[in-house]
Amino acid sequence: MSEAADEIFATLRQSGQSGAPLYLQLRRSIEDAVRRGLIGPGDALPSERDIATKAEISRVTVRKAVQDLVKGGILVQRHGSGTFVAPRMERVEQSLSRLTSFTEDMARRGMAVRSQWLDRGLYAPSPDEMMVLGLAASELVARVARLRIADDTPLAIERASLSARVLPDPAGIGSSLYAALEATGNRPVRAVQRISAANLGEGDARLLDVAPGAAGLRIERISYLASGKVIEFTRSVYRGDAYDFVAELRLGITADETGRGA
User: Fold this and answer.
1) H-helix or E-strand containing 259?
2) Which segment of the chain is annotated as a signal peptide (predicted)?
């Protein structure tokens, strides 16, 4: 690491006349070193004090550059251990045109899947759950929350809500919620999803092993039975550095346009 560090600092000194803020120059120097393979996944960075001394800049400047790189997924910080180059992660692509479970998705890719249960229980419904699931205030809602992990990498936090009439014993779910619903004839056949960008809060970031404030994807999904009845209300958070959602788009042809072409 010492030779790579020397080159980073040399590059930083050479770029000192660029006029860009010093923290930005340092960030770019470290990013360039990672891109060129001078420092690789798992390599430790020198301490903030050492970087500040060798680069002849303040520790506040170093800290700002490092925090930017942690939020960008280039570096990771481990409490009590230091700062390291983040492991390279193969991004997962998920189609938006198929309604599948996380377990089915990852198994199709040959990835080993496991879940860490965060919550399985019956509760009084929230106003949102009452509205979406059509529940009365006197009814109960089943909540199932899991950290979804593939090949030992935490990828998503899924928090699903269903009527307790549909899922009276959430603690009895095995590895797949959809498999449990299919066994009772309640597996959804279609869903509407809303995807938005989000910066991960401290709790979710800790579960997903990323820095607080890191980029994430927030997904709200309402799933339906063939009858049109809402069966599931899910709010999930995905790692922004690991997930791509892919949709196929087709040219739409209206009925009027079809008639004119006849």
Assistant:
1) helix 255-261
2) none
- Biggest CA–CA distance in the chain, Å, is 77
- CATH code for 2-85? 1.10.10.10
Q: Provide the token pair at 40.
A: 């690789």
Q: The whole model's pTM is what?
A: 0.62
| Digit-coded pLDDT (tens) for 8-47 | 665 555 555 456 788 888 888 888 888 777 787 778 888 8
**Residue ranges covered by each domain of the chain:** 2-85, 92-246
Please choose, from the candidates 23, 85, 20, 105, the residue with its C-alpha nearest in 3D space to the C-alpha of residue 59.
23
Cα separation of 131 and 226, whole Å? 20
User: Which CATH superfamily hosts domain 92-246?
Assistant: Chorismate lyase-like (3.40.1410.10)
Kindly tell me the sign of the dihedral angle through the C-alpha atoms of 43, 49, 51, 53: negative
Ordered DSSP codes for 208-221 = HTS-TT-EEEEEEE
Angle between the 22-35 and 2-14 helix axes, to the nearest 10 degrees? 130
